[in-house]
Design a protein that fits this description.
By secondary structure, this protein is α/β, with parallel strands linked by helices. The chain is built from eight helices and ten strands. The protein has helices spanning 19-28, 35-43, 93-106, 124-129, 151-160, 178-191, 216-226, 285-306, and strands spanning 50-60, 63-72, 81-86, 115-119, 167-175, 206-210, 240-241, 244-248, 251-254, 270-276. A ten-stranded mixed beta sheet has the order 1-2-4-3-5-10-6-9-8-7, with helices on both faces. Helix 3 (93-106) packs across helix 8 (285-306) and helix 7 (216-226) runs antiparallel to helix 8. The protein is globular, with a radius of gyration of 19 Å. The termini are far apart. It comes from Pelomonas candidula.
Protein backbone atom coordinates (compact mmCIF):
# COMPACT_ATOMS: atom_id res chain seq x y z
CA UNK A 1 0.00 0.00 0.00
CA UNK A 2 1.00 3.60 -0.55
CA UNK A 3 2.04 5.90 2.28
CA UNK A 4 -0.61 8.39 3.33
CA UNK A 5 -0.06 11.79 1.67
CA UNK A 6 -1.94 13.94 4.20
CA UNK A 7 0.34 14.60 7.18
CA UNK A 8 -0.79 14.05 10.76
CA UNK A 9 -1.80 17.45 12.25
CA UNK A 10 0.88 17.34 14.97
CA UNK A 11 4.60 17.41 14.28
CA UNK A 12 6.79 17.79 11.21
CA UNK A 13 6.78 14.95 8.67
CA UNK A 14 9.94 12.91 8.93
CA UNK A 15 10.87 14.21 12.40
CA UNK A 16 10.30 12.42 15.69
CA UNK A 17 8.20 14.20 18.27
CA UNK A 18 9.76 16.04 21.15
CA UNK A 19 8.21 17.31 24.36
CA UNK A 20 6.34 20.12 22.56
CA UNK A 21 4.63 17.73 20.17
CA UNK A 22 3.69 15.34 22.97
CA UNK A 23 2.17 18.28 24.89
CA UNK A 24 0.28 19.37 21.77
CA UNK A 25 -1.07 15.85 21.32
CA UNK A 26 -2.09 15.66 24.99
CA UNK A 27 -3.99 18.94 24.64
CA UNK A 28 -6.23 17.31 22.02
CA UNK A 29 -7.16 14.37 24.26
CA UNK A 30 -10.46 14.77 26.10
CA UNK A 31 -11.74 12.83 29.12
CA UNK A 32 -14.88 10.95 28.03
CA UNK A 33 -15.65 8.42 30.78
CA UNK A 34 -14.90 7.64 34.42
CA UNK A 35 -12.50 4.99 35.67
CA UNK A 36 -14.00 5.34 39.14
CA UNK A 37 -17.55 4.75 37.91
CA UNK A 38 -16.81 2.14 35.26
CA UNK A 39 -14.07 0.07 36.87
CA UNK A 40 -13.50 0.81 40.56
CA UNK A 41 -17.22 0.67 41.36
CA UNK A 42 -17.51 -2.62 39.44
CA UNK A 43 -14.63 -4.14 41.40
CA UNK A 44 -16.04 -3.15 44.79
CA UNK A 45 -18.73 -5.91 44.98
CA UNK A 46 -16.10 -8.51 44.04
CA UNK A 47 -14.49 -8.03 47.45
CA UNK A 48 -17.13 -10.41 48.83
CA UNK A 49 -15.49 -13.36 47.07
CA UNK A 50 -12.00 -12.22 46.09
CA UNK A 51 -9.01 -10.44 47.54
CA UNK A 52 -8.58 -7.01 45.94
CA UNK A 53 -5.27 -5.20 46.24
CA UNK A 54 -3.73 -1.97 44.97
CA UNK A 55 -0.55 -2.88 43.11
CA UNK A 56 0.38 0.66 42.19
CA UNK A 57 -1.02 4.09 41.41
CA UNK A 58 -0.67 6.73 38.72
CA UNK A 59 -0.85 10.48 39.32
CA UNK A 60 -1.39 12.46 36.13
CA UNK A 61 -2.18 16.18 36.13
CA UNK A 62 -3.93 16.11 39.48
CA UNK A 63 -5.77 12.84 38.82
CA UNK A 64 -5.07 9.83 41.02
CA UNK A 65 -5.60 6.36 39.57
CA UNK A 66 -5.25 3.36 41.92
CA UNK A 67 -4.32 0.21 40.01
CA UNK A 68 -6.27 -2.79 41.30
CA UNK A 69 -5.77 -6.53 40.99
CA UNK A 70 -8.36 -9.16 41.89
CA UNK A 71 -7.04 -12.46 43.29
CA UNK A 72 -8.41 -15.79 44.39
CA UNK A 73 -9.15 -15.91 48.09
CA UNK A 74 -7.07 -18.61 49.75
CA UNK A 75 -4.20 -18.45 47.28
CA UNK A 76 -2.12 -21.64 47.37
CA UNK A 77 1.33 -21.71 45.82
CA UNK A 78 1.07 -25.38 44.88
CA UNK A 79 -1.89 -24.70 42.55
CA UNK A 80 -1.59 -23.62 38.89
CA UNK A 81 -1.78 -19.85 38.39
CA UNK A 82 -4.01 -18.19 35.79
CA UNK A 83 -3.59 -14.53 34.80
CA UNK A 84 -6.08 -12.32 32.94
CA UNK A 85 -5.25 -8.75 31.92
CA UNK A 86 -7.45 -6.13 30.27
CA UNK A 87 -7.35 -2.47 29.39
CA UNK A 88 -3.69 -2.33 28.43
CA UNK A 89 -5.00 0.01 25.73
CA UNK A 90 -7.67 2.23 27.21
CA UNK A 91 -9.80 2.47 24.08
CA UNK A 92 -10.28 -1.30 23.87
CA UNK A 93 -13.50 -1.39 25.85
CA UNK A 94 -14.48 -5.05 25.75
CA UNK A 95 -11.15 -6.09 27.26
CA UNK A 96 -11.96 -4.25 30.48
CA UNK A 97 -15.65 -5.14 30.50
CA UNK A 98 -14.87 -8.73 29.55
CA UNK A 99 -12.42 -9.15 32.43
CA UNK A 100 -14.97 -7.75 34.87
CA UNK A 101 -17.81 -9.86 33.45
CA UNK A 102 -15.65 -12.98 33.67
CA UNK A 103 -14.95 -12.29 37.32
CA UNK A 104 -18.62 -11.71 38.14
CA UNK A 105 -20.01 -14.70 36.29
CA UNK A 106 -17.18 -17.25 36.27
CA UNK A 107 -14.41 -16.11 38.58
CA UNK A 108 -15.14 -18.77 41.19
CA UNK A 109 -15.31 -21.70 38.77
CA UNK A 110 -11.69 -22.68 39.37
CA UNK A 111 -11.74 -22.12 43.14
CA UNK A 112 -9.65 -24.77 44.87
CA UNK A 113 -8.16 -25.92 41.55
CA UNK A 114 -6.16 -22.87 40.49
CA UNK A 115 -5.04 -19.43 41.59
CA UNK A 116 -6.62 -16.60 39.59
CA UNK A 117 -5.22 -13.09 39.22
CA UNK A 118 -7.05 -10.48 37.13
CA UNK A 119 -5.91 -6.92 36.38
CA UNK A 120 -9.04 -5.58 34.65
CA UNK A 121 -7.84 -2.11 33.61
CA UNK A 122 -4.10 -1.62 33.26
CA UNK A 123 -4.34 1.89 31.73
CA UNK A 124 -6.96 4.00 33.53
CA UNK A 125 -5.89 7.40 32.14
CA UNK A 126 -6.27 6.01 28.62
CA UNK A 127 -9.55 4.31 29.56
CA UNK A 128 -11.06 7.65 30.50
CA UNK A 129 -9.86 9.25 27.26
CA UNK A 130 -10.50 6.26 24.96
CA UNK A 131 -6.86 6.31 23.87
CA UNK A 132 -4.20 3.76 22.99
CA UNK A 133 -1.28 5.65 24.51
CA UNK A 134 -0.69 6.79 28.06
CA UNK A 135 -0.34 10.44 29.04
CA UNK A 136 3.25 10.55 27.75
CA UNK A 137 2.33 9.25 24.28
CA UNK A 138 3.80 5.84 25.09
CA UNK A 139 2.15 2.57 24.11
CA UNK A 140 2.05 0.42 27.26
CA UNK A 141 1.96 -2.69 25.09
CA UNK A 142 5.44 -2.08 23.77
CA UNK A 143 6.90 -1.32 27.19
CA UNK A 144 6.35 -4.31 29.49
CA UNK A 145 9.89 -4.67 30.79
CA UNK A 146 11.95 -3.88 33.85
CA UNK A 147 12.60 -0.15 34.17
CA UNK A 148 9.76 0.67 31.78
CA UNK A 149 9.19 4.38 31.07
CA UNK A 150 5.43 3.71 31.06
CA UNK A 151 4.10 3.71 34.62
CA UNK A 152 1.21 1.43 33.69
CA UNK A 153 3.61 -1.18 32.32
CA UNK A 154 6.14 -0.87 35.14
CA UNK A 155 3.45 -1.40 37.79
CA UNK A 156 2.09 -4.54 36.13
CA UNK A 157 5.57 -5.97 35.56
CA UNK A 158 6.28 -5.49 39.26
CA UNK A 159 2.98 -7.12 40.25
CA UNK A 160 3.57 -10.17 38.06
CA UNK A 161 7.33 -10.56 38.60
CA UNK A 162 6.92 -13.10 41.45
CA UNK A 163 4.75 -15.22 39.13
CA UNK A 164 7.15 -15.24 36.20
CA UNK A 165 7.90 -18.82 35.20
CA UNK A 166 5.23 -20.07 37.63
CA UNK A 167 2.15 -19.08 35.61
CA UNK A 168 0.29 -21.73 33.65
CA UNK A 169 -1.92 -19.43 31.54
CA UNK A 170 -1.98 -15.71 30.71
CA UNK A 171 -4.59 -14.18 28.42
CA UNK A 172 -4.49 -10.48 27.53
CA UNK A 173 -7.75 -8.97 26.23
CA UNK A 174 -7.62 -6.47 23.35
CA UNK A 175 -9.61 -4.98 20.48
CA UNK A 176 -8.72 -3.85 16.96
CA UNK A 177 -10.90 -0.90 15.92
CA UNK A 178 -11.44 1.38 12.94
CA UNK A 179 -9.69 4.08 14.96
CA UNK A 180 -6.47 2.07 14.61
CA UNK A 181 -6.37 3.20 10.98
CA UNK A 182 -8.04 6.61 11.35
CA UNK A 183 -6.08 7.84 14.39
CA UNK A 184 -3.74 5.57 16.32
CA UNK A 185 -1.46 4.23 13.59
CA UNK A 186 -1.20 7.65 11.88
CA UNK A 187 -0.31 9.19 15.25
CA UNK A 188 2.31 6.49 15.83
CA UNK A 189 3.92 7.14 12.45
CA UNK A 190 3.98 10.88 13.10
CA UNK A 191 5.42 10.44 16.60
CA UNK A 192 8.24 8.29 15.25
CA UNK A 193 8.93 10.49 12.21
CA UNK A 194 7.84 7.80 9.76
CA UNK A 195 5.42 7.66 6.85
CA UNK A 196 2.03 6.11 7.60
CA UNK A 197 1.24 3.11 5.41
CA UNK A 198 -2.47 2.16 5.63
CA UNK A 199 -3.53 -1.39 6.34
CA UNK A 200 -6.84 -3.28 6.57
CA UNK A 201 -8.69 -3.63 9.88
CA UNK A 202 -9.57 -7.32 10.33
CA UNK A 203 -13.33 -7.93 10.51
CA UNK A 204 -13.71 -10.41 13.33
CA UNK A 205 -11.99 -12.07 16.28
CA UNK A 206 -8.40 -13.28 16.13
CA UNK A 207 -5.55 -14.28 18.43
CA UNK A 208 -1.85 -13.44 18.66
CA UNK A 209 0.56 -16.23 19.60
CA UNK A 210 4.22 -15.73 20.50
CA UNK A 211 6.33 -16.61 17.48
CA UNK A 212 9.19 -17.68 19.73
CA UNK A 213 7.09 -19.93 21.97
CA UNK A 214 4.11 -21.11 19.92
CA UNK A 215 1.24 -23.12 21.33
CA UNK A 216 -0.92 -23.79 18.25
CA UNK A 217 -3.23 -26.34 19.88
CA UNK A 218 -3.98 -23.93 22.71
CA UNK A 219 -4.74 -21.11 20.26
CA UNK A 220 -6.95 -23.42 18.22
CA UNK A 221 -8.98 -24.42 21.28
CA UNK A 222 -9.68 -20.76 22.07
CA UNK A 223 -10.58 -19.91 18.46
CA UNK A 224 -12.93 -22.88 18.20
CA UNK A 225 -14.76 -21.80 21.35
CA UNK A 226 -15.09 -18.16 20.27
CA UNK A 227 -16.30 -19.19 16.81
CA UNK A 228 -19.50 -20.36 18.50
CA UNK A 229 -20.05 -16.81 19.78
CA UNK A 230 -18.92 -14.59 16.91
CA UNK A 231 -17.16 -14.68 13.57
CA UNK A 232 -13.42 -15.22 13.17
CA UNK A 233 -11.40 -12.69 11.17
CA UNK A 234 -10.47 -13.83 7.66
CA UNK A 235 -7.05 -13.00 6.19
CA UNK A 236 -6.62 -10.08 3.80
CA UNK A 237 -5.85 -10.44 0.09
CA UNK A 238 -2.24 -11.27 0.92
CA UNK A 239 -3.22 -14.02 3.36
CA UNK A 240 -2.24 -11.86 6.35
CA UNK A 241 -3.85 -10.27 9.40
CA UNK A 242 -2.27 -6.90 10.37
CA UNK A 243 0.68 -7.76 8.17
CA UNK A 244 1.36 -11.14 9.77
CA UNK A 245 0.93 -14.52 8.06
CA UNK A 246 -1.55 -16.89 9.64
CA UNK A 247 -0.40 -19.68 11.94
CA UNK A 248 -3.87 -21.16 11.46
CA UNK A 249 -7.31 -19.65 10.74
CA UNK A 250 -7.80 -16.69 13.07
CA UNK A 251 -4.33 -16.97 14.66
CA UNK A 252 -1.19 -14.97 13.87
CA UNK A 253 2.30 -15.23 15.33
CA UNK A 254 4.19 -12.17 16.56
CA UNK A 255 7.36 -11.50 18.53
CA UNK A 256 5.33 -10.98 21.70
CA UNK A 257 8.19 -11.24 24.18
CA UNK A 258 10.78 -9.38 22.10
CA UNK A 259 8.38 -6.47 21.50
CA UNK A 260 7.54 -6.05 25.19
CA UNK A 261 3.89 -7.08 24.96
CA UNK A 262 1.77 -7.81 28.01
CA UNK A 263 1.08 -11.48 27.30
CA UNK A 264 4.79 -12.29 27.70
CA UNK A 265 5.28 -10.80 31.20
CA UNK A 266 4.62 -14.04 33.07
CA UNK A 267 6.40 -16.38 30.62
CA UNK A 268 3.28 -18.54 30.95
CA UNK A 269 3.27 -21.93 29.29
CA UNK A 270 -0.01 -21.01 27.60
CA UNK A 271 -0.32 -17.36 26.57
CA UNK A 272 -2.36 -15.45 24.04
CA UNK A 273 -3.65 -12.00 23.13
CA UNK A 274 -7.24 -11.62 21.98
CA UNK A 275 -8.38 -9.13 19.36
CA UNK A 276 -12.06 -8.28 18.92
CA UNK A 277 -13.44 -5.98 16.19
CA UNK A 278 -16.22 -3.89 17.78
CA UNK A 279 -16.85 -1.81 14.64
CA UNK A 280 -18.03 -4.78 12.60
CA UNK A 281 -21.66 -4.60 11.44
CA UNK A 282 -21.84 -8.24 12.51
CA UNK A 283 -20.93 -7.50 16.15
CA UNK A 284 -22.69 -5.81 19.05
CA UNK A 285 -20.91 -4.42 22.12
CA UNK A 286 -22.32 -7.27 24.20
CA UNK A 287 -21.08 -9.85 21.69
CA UNK A 288 -17.60 -8.34 22.02
CA UNK A 289 -17.71 -8.78 25.78
CA UNK A 290 -19.11 -12.30 25.40
CA UNK A 291 -16.30 -13.18 22.98
CA UNK A 292 -13.71 -12.04 25.53
CA UNK A 293 -15.32 -14.03 28.34
CA UNK A 294 -15.58 -17.10 26.14
CA UNK A 295 -11.91 -16.79 25.21
CA UNK A 296 -10.88 -16.58 28.87
CA UNK A 297 -12.93 -19.61 29.85
CA UNK A 298 -11.66 -21.66 26.89
CA UNK A 299 -8.05 -20.71 27.62
CA UNK A 300 -8.42 -21.73 31.26
CA UNK A 301 -10.15 -25.01 30.41
CA UNK A 302 -7.45 -26.01 27.93
CA UNK A 303 -4.57 -25.03 30.21
CA UNK A 304 -5.94 -26.85 33.24
CA UNK A 305 -6.59 -29.95 31.18
CA UNK A 306 -2.89 -30.00 30.25
CA UNK A 307 -1.54 -29.31 33.75
Amino acid sequence: MQAQSTPYPIGTPGQRWGAAEVAAWRATVVRQRSYANDVLSAIEPLRRDFDVSEYGALDYDGQHFPLLAVRSRGWRDELPTLVVTGGVHGYETSGVLGALQFLRAHGLETAGRANLLVAPCVSPWAWERIQRWNRDALDPNRNFRAGSPAGESAALVSLLAPLRGRTLMHIDLHETTDSDESEFRPALAARDGEAFVPDVVPDGFYLVDDADSPQPDFQRAVIDAVARVTHIAPPDANGHIIGCPLQSPGVISFAVAKKGLCAAITAARFATTTEVYPDSPRMTPQQCVEAQVTAVRAAIAYALAQS
